[in-house]
Write a structure and sequence with these properties.
Layout lengths: L22 E4 L2 E4 L17 E4 L2 E4 H8 L39
Antiparallel strand pairs: 1-2, 3-4
Subcellular location: Nucleus
Pfam family, one: LIM
Keywords: LIM domain, Metal-binding, Nucleus, Repeat, Zinc
Length: about 110
């Protein structure tokens, strides 16, 4: 019976094999050290500051900016309401409008 090599796990960022000497573990997957970077600011990450969303890695600061709560009391200053939709961070899921949704207010 011929020798069958062990299949190495693939890095979710570059799709190349990840070997034990270079692996970083996050979101149940193995990453290369060079691929283990924030998807927004490209800062190198480690296990203490890495968060994952939709298969992409983020540092905690960028994750909070992109996916965290918006509005009063969330780092915008006292008495302010953020109208930031996160478009500059690639967020296209938020649709904001100042038009009333009640049909009685045409």
């Amino acid at each position: 019976m011929p020798f069958k090599p062990v299949e190495q796990p693939k890095c979710p960022k570059c799709s190349k094999s990840v070997y034990a000497a270079e692996e970083m573990l996050a979101a149940g997957q193995k990453w290369h050290k060079n691929c283990f970077k924030c998807g927004l600011c490209h800062k190198s990450l480690d296990s203490t500051n890495a968060t994952e969303h939709g298969g992409e890695l983020y540092c905690k600061q960028c994750y909070g900016r992109k996916f965290g709560p918006k509005g009063y009391g969330f780092g915008q200053g006292a008495g302010t309401l953020s109208m930031d939709t996160g478009a500059h961070l690639g967020n296209t899921a938020t649709a904001m409008s100042n038009k009333p949704t009640d049909p009685n207010y045409g």
